[in-house]
Specification:
CATH class of the largest domain: Alpha Beta
Strand order of the largest sheet: 2-1-11-10-12-13-14-15-16
Structural class: alpha/beta
CATH architecture of the largest domain: 3-Layer(aba) Sandwich
Distance between the termini: 44 Å
Bound molecules: adenosine monophosphate
Strand content: 15-25%
Shape: globular
Number of strands: 27
Length: 586
């Protein structure tokens, strides 16, 4: 079905958008002018994300403006002004300094959306240490992999998460010097410390040391098809992108109340759930609880959210319910809705128009890009199903790889190819930690190859086609099949595992594992349930397989790799494609 474009005009916009004319914005854009809108550290001492997000507002007219409103799961509300955030993040930076944690040292967080996480992130950046968030629904295995790979020296977490996921791993983590517990009144031992006690003792005064824009600031883990998770390195200069995209895409204005529903365990929850809104001095809503349609609509209503950034899985969940949001809730404050993380079906865009009175603006980016790259803008017509057009300052193209060595830009419209970006934007990842070769392999003939397949139409709108690899997107979260297979292989009954993403109408894809058993084990319901439980305990609910199917043989390439592509084609009843590399059945 061909979807009618959603026409935009300046007149429909309650607040005049920052980006009024796309072509003109592209023609006049410069990173220098974005840099001039930021402050830089006093005395010309560089650029620090936390200074731009907090201190420059706290030291000026926005000191008493509400920076973060935290909505606790049980109804508790905590408000933090920019002044409060400055004092608290200074305290955290002093805690790190007191513990001997310095520039470049990695500070991990494993926590739900609690205020301490936000304070730790900002304090870590002030201390020029590197903030590395972990999703709290990860099981012990993904947590251990990331702490090890990221050389974690400090971990901020809660008593419960520590006991469940980390305590028994301490021996595998000799570099982990201190664990700071957000909810322990006293220290348990020399390495397991009470964060409230340390914060209480720390000073509220902290002078951010000179920070080079190229200093490492954030480490975000992302999944690969073949190996274990990779740590994408981001630098302080990324704040230019956070600021620019919050201006041109999210279209934040000083009085906005912004809510990003993503968890800071993933890049969206950090770039847009913490940094970007604060760089604009707006009010940022943080909800501790998980998705609940009534709760969400009530938040939009009671907090008078003006700009909302959410994800397709959530939108599809809302679409399914028999709720007429505009009849049941007062959503009159809302003026813009954005979505990211997975393909947004055209039905979702149009549902927004009907149910919320506002279309949903899809945008595209990924962990490696550090910020939004392709977007639908408040003042630009929407073509439902399209990710939109590249941000001013960003050059995107469809390229065709030649013999696995070169890349050629496809100029003809509506031709499928690799989505590629011209390197050089401020939030581009600067490497995969300890994996220079993998980093280099992402760049071909002067293009960064994103790993996504897409098309570009005659007017420069980009359309997502799929992943070029086997990575799974489940409920918007990226899952690497290799990581799941490795964990499942540790079960004594399992001989081999192949993991795929099986399309699902709500969560996009669900993780499905095909398993062959060792001699002496019989497939059956009992073993299937045991394996599902084993996966959940090891990997956590966000990553574990939701479906398991027993197979006698898995298809392999001649070089012995499991052909996930074939497993998927068979699962979906699709043509099996080129089978020339398929090994004879063993
Ligand atoms: P992550 O690095 O976890 O943020 O995942 C990035 C990947 O999510 C991209 O490479 C895409 O495969 C997918 N993705 C993100 N945004 C979109 C979107 N708007 N439409 C389709 N896929 C998306």
């Amino acid at each position: 079905m061909n979807w009618e474009p959603i026409r935009k005009s300046r007149e429909d916009q309650v607040v005049p958008p920052h980006l009024l004319d796309y072509a003109e914005a592209c023609a006049t854009f410069s990173w220098e002018s974005i840099r001039r809108e930021l402050s830089g550290l006093p005395g010309g001492k560089g650029l620090n994300i936390a200074y731009e997000a907090v201190d420059r507002h706290a030291d000026g007219a926005r000191r008493d403006h509400l920076a973060i409103r935290w909505l606790g799961r049980e109804g508790l509300v905590r408000d933090f002004t920019y002044g409060d955030l400055k004092a608290l993040s200074n305290r955290f930076a002093n805690v790190l300094r007191w513990l001997g944690v310095g520039a470049g040292d990695r500070v991990f967080a494993l926590a739900g959306r609690i205020p301490e996480l936000y304070i730790a992130a900002l304090g870590t950046l002030k201390n020029r240490s590197v903030f590395a968030p972990l999703f709290s629904a990860f099981g012990p295995e993904p947590v251990a992999q990331r702490l090890m790979r990221g050389d974690a020296g400090i971990l901020v977490t809660t008593k419960r998460l520590y006991t469940q996921k980390v305590a028994h791993l301490r021996e595998r983590l000799p570099q982990l010097r201190y664990v700071l517990l957000t909810d322990a009144p006293d220290d348990a031992d020399d390495g397991l410390l009470s964060l409230p006690r340390l914060m209480e003792a720390a000073s509220e005064v902290f002078i951010i040391p000179p920070t080079d824009p190229e200093d490492m600031a954030l480490l975000h883990f992302t999944s690969g098809t073949t190996g274990m998770p990779k740590g994408a390195i981001h630098v302080h200069n990324a704040v230019l992108m956070h600021y620019a995209t919050a201006k041109y895409v999210l279209d934040l204005h000083p009085d906005d109340i912004f809510w990003c529903t993503a968890d800071p365990g993933w890049v969206t929850g950090t770039s847009y759930g913490i940094i970007a809104p604060l760089t604009h001095g707006v009010t940022n809503i943080v909800d501790e609880a998980d998705f609940d349609a009534d709760r969400w609509y009530r938040i939009l209503e009671s907090q008078k959210v003006t700009v909302w950034y959410t994800a397709p899985t959530a939108i599809r969940r809302l679409m399914r319910l028999e709720i007429e949001p505009r009849k049941q809730y007062d959503l009159s404050s809302l003026r813009l809705v954005h979505s990211v993380g997975e393909p947004l079906n055209p039905e979702g865009v149009v549902w927004g128009q009907e149910a919320l009175g506002l279309p949903i603006h899809d945008n595209w980016w990924q962990t490696e890009t550090g910020g939004i790259m392709i977007a639908n803008y408040a003042a630009m017509d929407i073509r439902p199903g399209s990710m939109g057009r590249p941000l001013p300052g960003i050059e995107a193209a469809i390229v065709r790889r030649i013999d696995g060595t070169g890349a050629q830009v496809v100029t003809a419209p509506n031709v499928e190819g690799d989505l590629a970006l011209k390197p050089g934007w401020p939030s581009m990842f600067r490497g995969y930690l300890h994996d220079e070769e993998r980093y280099r392999s992402c760049f071909v003939d002067g293009w960064y190859i994103t790993g996504d397949l897409a098309m570009r139409d005659e007017d420069g709108y980009f359309w997502f086609v799929g992943r070029a690899d086997d990575i799974i997107k489940t409920a918007g979260h990226m899952v690497g099949p290799f990581e799941v297979e490795s964990a499942m292989m540790e079960h004594p009954a399992v001989a081999e595992v192949g993991v795929i993403g099986k399309p699902d109408p709500i969560i996009g894809e669900l993780v499905k594992a095909f398993v062959t058993l060792k001699p002496g084990f019989e497939p059956g319901e009992k073993l299937r349930m045991e394996l599902l439980g084993f996966g959940r305990t090891r990997l956590g609910s966000a990553v574990a397989p939701k479906e398991i199917e027993f197979e006698e043989h898995l298809p392999h390439t001649r070089s012995g790799k499991i052909m996930r592509r074939l497993l998927k084609a068979r699962e979906l009843g699709l043509p099996e494609g080129d089978l020339s590399t398929l090994e004879e059945t063993r």
